[in-house]
């Protein structure tokens, strides 16, 4: 069991409250996902639950944490620097249970995780492994220790489709408690039976949390229904208030006019009017008290709204790309990743390239983007996986988006940024201080303002909240130009992309749609005593 009582976490730098008076109880069988926008405290909360000391350097926490006698394992979002320097064998050797495993047990685990039995004994640095291999190594070491509780921080980041499905099976089949942070809507939908939602509302001046024992899709529907009910109630109450106030003002003005018109020779009428005015003002004070109990207009953090120009459509017969590459090499030029690559894109096609970790997807799409440098017939926008490759970290969001320098343009940009929940202060802060999700939204907003013919996107949804996902996918689906992208986001692939290509050692291969997924409830077999 996990029990959290009266937890408040405050960020030391900006004194922002991440969670306030937080309460939580998790029992065996709970598979709880923590969702929210970047910077809302998801990882901080998860780390505090594992070990309060992990956040002591940047946040202050007050609350009670009860974990009982159950063994807890933690998968961090990023390996510690010293862990990256260890060899794979050294990494496994730090788990005492590694040496208690029989060759048969190690072989079965390697097979479950889709790696060779020799994987445990590699002398390769952990930091040099692909994203999927790092996750697999950490999960394998964790499972050797036979934990009861799994705490997983963004386990689906930077992993390929096979690793995602493996992770999905593991969470679905876990008999004890799983608490995880994820942006991956498909993973959440297939695994979570409980949602913990952290928000920063009222222009990020107030924290709010919601805990519901519902699967993700049920939670989203219930949340939408509640939002619509609250919005309707607040709207109706404000309409009634306007009618009531108009009637009240007419009565007040009528009595006031009568007081000004009464003759001084009629003191009796003047006294009656004074008494009536006193009664009318008393009613006004009562109305003011009633107004304090009015339903508030609901505020939700993920309520973003913008669109890429959907009216323009690139002609169906226009050749957007005719690309050939005999050999794709790793960035250092030492390894051949793929050969005989051919890609033709015509009209408003929306292409997604998938493949195993280390297959060269990012290297390929970066090379494709370079081929458009001298093209004059197409307006192209490129969103790299590493935002620092294209963003000036010293620029402000307003400066980055401002191509004209006019006051009208800056006003328009601030309005757009406001719809993305940027505060006025964040609009003027250096981009380097923004969260990954905010940087992703900046790229997408730039694209929406650019009237592009082609978008080249490397993992476009990787830092976006699952609640923002539907808006972004709808926007990209309605885009009238072409898209060439790399992604492992199954929702994005199914809802946006018209063609899926897998990068293999022998080139790009067409993949049938929809992608095959592991059914909910499949179990991942881990031997437990």
UniProtKB/TrEMBL annotation:
PROSITE patterns: ABC_TRANSPORTER_1, ABC_TRANSPORTER_2. Signal peptide: none annotated. GO terms for molecular function: ATP binding; ATP hydrolysis activity. InterPro entries: AAA+_ATPase, ABC_transporter-like_ATP-bd, ABC_transporter-like_CS, ABCF, P-loop_NTPase. Residues 2-225, 322-528 form the ABC transporter domain. It comes from the Bacteria. Gene3D superfamilies: P-loop containing nucleotide triphosphate hydrolases. The keyword Repeat applies. Keywords: ATP-binding, Nucleotide-binding, Repeat. Pfam families: ABC_tran (PF00005). SMART domains: AAA. This is ABC-F family ATP-binding cassette domain-containing protein. It comes from Bilifractor porci. The lineage of its organism: Bacteria, Bacillati, Bacillota, Clostridia, Lachnospirales.
